[in-house]
Specification:
The protein is an alpha/beta fold. It contains 7 helices and 8 strands, in the order βββαβααβαβαβαβα. The protein is globular.
Amino acid sequence: MTPDASSTCGSEPERPVRGEYLSVAVDGQPMSAYLARPVDTTPRGTVLVGFEMFGLSRYVRGVTDRIAGLGYTAVAPDFYHRHGDRIDLPETTEGRAEGYRLLAALDRDEVTADASAVLDHLGEPSSAAGMVGLSVGGHIAYALATRLPLAALGLFYPGWLTQAGTGLSRPEALLELTPKITAQGTPVLLLIGEHDQLYTPGELDQIAQRLAADQVEHEMVVYPGAPHGFFCQERDTYRADAADDAFARLTRLLARTLPRPA
């Protein structure tokens, strides 16, 4: 593992990994992506990692390392690359405000082009790749799963699924596009804290009911008492029991779906 990429995100990778930055061409422009691979085994599939609103942070690189440590090629595209290279915002009021601005600027066609370009660069069809999204990254991942036949979707407290208004949820809320995930045959794992401020009362029921009604293969886990960001050990929102259980469920999902059964 590269020293600058390490992070406390629950635990260290299960096996040693090597991390590096890639430069990937998207619509004729370079985009950075953080890539991690296990060093002692041939990767058994590719996992895209959608970052939090703060961008390609040390924490996100650490999560990417940890997924690679399970035996996968893990890669976090820089979905903010049209606004700056390797943006890594501070976790301050100003940083969050800038994160919301960048979130509002994301576009469905552009993030699809970004993800597709990374997978093409790696020689991996989207049908053989899973995706893990953290907060804003879960929002991005849900949007991508309506357009790409991803093998699996692991979402840690994804925001803004039921409401229109972000760049990715215009003109309609992403939840309205759920039938497209059904058509792709992508299993979905949602991991959410009971006290997550991103969800108003009833929204969790709305999400669960929509996934069931559209016959999406899914597992939705709501952790009692857990807040938003329960997976990140670097913050006071961290909840060890919920984080460990969530990563165990993600591990099982990836083991079952990558490579995707024929």
